Amino acid sequence: MSRPSRYAPDTLSRAAHWSDQAACRELEDHSIFFPEDFPKNQVLLVAMEAKAVCARCPVIEACRDAALARLEPNGVWGGLDKDERRAIRRRQQRRARRRDARRQKEGGDGAGEAADAP
Questions:
Q1: Tens digit of pLDDT for each residue in 33-62?
Q2: Cβ atoms within 10 Å, residue 38
Q3: DSSP 41-109
Q4: Distance between CA 5 and CA 116 in Å, rounded?
Q5: How far apart are CA 95 and CA 89, in angstroms?
Q6: Hey, which residues does 77 pair with through a beta bridge?
Q7: Which of 74, 18, 25, 73 is nearest to 53 (CA)?
Q8: Dihedrals φ, ψ of 90, to 5°?
Q9: Helix (H), strand (E) at residue 114
Q10: Which pLDDT belongs to residue 104?
């Protein structure tokens, strides 16, 4: 499929994106999604407020997956703050290491097995 021209008029419609349906798009002030920017005594309260918006969002899973995929360093994305996303990434990395170790222990990555098949 060819790529649309960069010279195409702005009146052409673009494909729908999951973020078009996000609950946070209704808000005028998006600063609550970055509680790290608030005074330390307000961070927890602001993060809870942002997570409440996320809780009613119809695209929370897509937002969370996108934030995890691009290793978003700050803010509340998909109902998770930076520490919660970091914990998820660590769990994923541990699982991957265990899976790789198990494969090595079982005799390699499986490439040799496919060659032995008739």
A1: 999 999 999 999 999 999 999 999 999 999
A2: 15
A3: GGHHHHHHHHHHHHHT-TTHHHHHHHHHHTT--SS-BTTB-HHHHHHHHHHHHHHHHHHHHHHHHTTSS
A4: 49
A5: 10
A6: 80
A7: 25
A8: -65, -45
A9: helix 111-116
A10: 92
